[in-house]
Amino acid sequence: MLKVLRDLLRYDGRFRLAIILLGAVVGMIVLSYDSPYDPGKTFVVPWDLPPSRDHIFGTTSRGQDLFWWLTFAIRNSLFVGVVTAIISRVISVLVGLTAGYRGGWLDKVLMAISDTFVVLPLLPILILLSFLLRDSMNLLTLAIILGLFGWSFDARLIRSQVLSLRERSFTRTAVYSGTSSFRITIHEHLPFVLPIVFATTLNNILWSIGMEVTLSILGLSDLTTPTLGTALYWANQHGALVAGLWWWITAPAMATVVLFLGLYLLFTSINEFIDPRTRLRLIGG
Fold first, then answer.
1. Which end of the chain has fewer CB atoms < 10 Å from its terminal CB, N or C?
2. How far apart, in whole angstroms, are the C-alpha atoms of residue 175 and residue 181?
């Protein structure tokens, strides 16, 4: 693991930039635990102040220090992404491994369910669920819903890998020696699909944070909880651009860009490092 990190840091500039950007994100998350302000309270500082030494990102029309409020927003948005990724990875791994190895009617049923989730119009469904669950909608509920909808495409990727592994000689040897299907799937096939799982996890985090931002801007999430989406929602509700409060839009937008760009660069660099051909080209082999 340390050798992989060393090679990525040495040979891939994208990975180095991703570490810098995500390091800034992690730093803000750590600072949220030592914030001098309660993010749920309003009018705790003078409102509508531009960025200054006392208020790095300025203050809002709700009397909140934007920098400290964004430390909570980034933490909560990343929480949604991580929980969504964990739930969807568990489902995609179970479905992909089972469908790929067992085949037959079970494969057809699981892939039919997967295809159904792939073609579903997700945003209208999420908007409907947000209206139905408006009183009980919180970040955990949103993450669970996104996780239940975000597994289908990656399950197909895992299945395609397992279909190839099923025909390898080591799988036949394990079958002839009397190894159970469960043990073959977990001990023989799962290690081969873990790189796919890891790469798609980062992609899934990006997707889920994007969906949270979209729903929050539309006012369909828990607007009392700081997130990157609710930051933009409240800025729009108070007419920040019309009032000339450019920092209220710029700060959360830039925080979102830094988080997305850091995760994207991390995803692309690791994804290429996993492939032996691109890895050899990267390190000059």
1. N
2. 8
Burial 15-47 (b: 16+ CB within 10 A, else e): beebbebbeebeebbebbeeeebebeeeebbeb
Asked if 59 and 45 touch (Cβ cutoff 8 Å), the reply is: yes
Query: Helix crossing, 104-119 with 152-165: angle to 10°?
Result: 150
The answer to whether 85 and 205 are in contact (CB under 8 A) is yes
Section 239-243 average pLDDT: 88
182 pLDDT exceeds 60?
Answer: yes
Site of tokens 């009617």: 105
d(CA 253, CA 250): 5
Contact in structure between 182 and 119 (CB atoms under 8 Å): no
Tell me the sheet residues that pair with 228.
none
Quote the DSSP letter at residue 184.
I
pTM comes to 0.88
Residue with tokens 């220090």: 65
Q: What is the DSSP letter of 179?
A: -
Element (H, E) at 224: none
Length of the chain: 285
Question: Can you list the domains of the chain with their CATH numbers?
Answer: 2-282 (1.10.3720.10)
Residue with tokens 């803000």: 28
Spatial CA neighbour of 260 closest among 188, 222, 216, 203 = 203
CA distance 96 to 162: 8
> How many Cβ atoms are within 10 Å of 88's Cβ, its own excluded?
27
pLDDT digits (tens, 9 = 90+) for 113-161: 999 998 888 888 888 888 888 777 889 999 999 999 999 989 999 999 8
Please give the Cα distance from 263 to 170 (Å, whole number).
Answer: 36
CA atoms of 157 and 167, how far apart (whole Å): 17
